[in-house]
Amino acid sequence: MKIKKLITAVLCITFIAFIGHASAQVKKKAIVKKKAPVAVAKTTPPPPFATAPEIEDGKALVSKSDCLACHKIDSKLVGPAYLAIAEKYPQDQNTVNMLSQKVISGGSGVWGPVPMAPHPVITLAEANKMVKYILTLNSKNTPVVSKLG
Fold it and tell me: Full-prediction pTM beyond 0.85?
C-alpha cells in the first residue's frame, strides 16, 4: 500500500511539474516582445525643377526660334542634341542661369569648335524657360536640391 501511495505521489509531482513547465513555455511564447513599428520619416518631395507651364512655354519658345536650325532633340546636328545637353548638366538654377546666358550671349568650346551664335533678342526669362525645357528632356536627370541652412 505504501508503494501505491509513493507511486501516486511521484506521478502527481511529475504531472504537476510537467504542467508547470508546459505552462511556462506557453507564457514565454506569449511574452515574446513585439518590435515597435519603425517610424518612417515623412519627407516632402522637393518642388518641381520646372512647372508644367514653364516647360510648355520653353518648348513653344524653342520651336518658334532658330534653335532647331542647329539642334535636334535626340541627334547632333551643328550643335549638340538637347538630350545630350540634358544628360550633361544637372537640373538646378545655377545651370539654368549659366546656360541661359550662353543662349543669349553665344558660346564655344564646350561641344566642339563650332560656336553657338548669340541670341540677344531672347530675354533672360525666355531663355530660362527654354533651358528648363531642355534639361527636363532627360528623365534620368533629377533636380539638385540645394542645402541651405
Answer: no
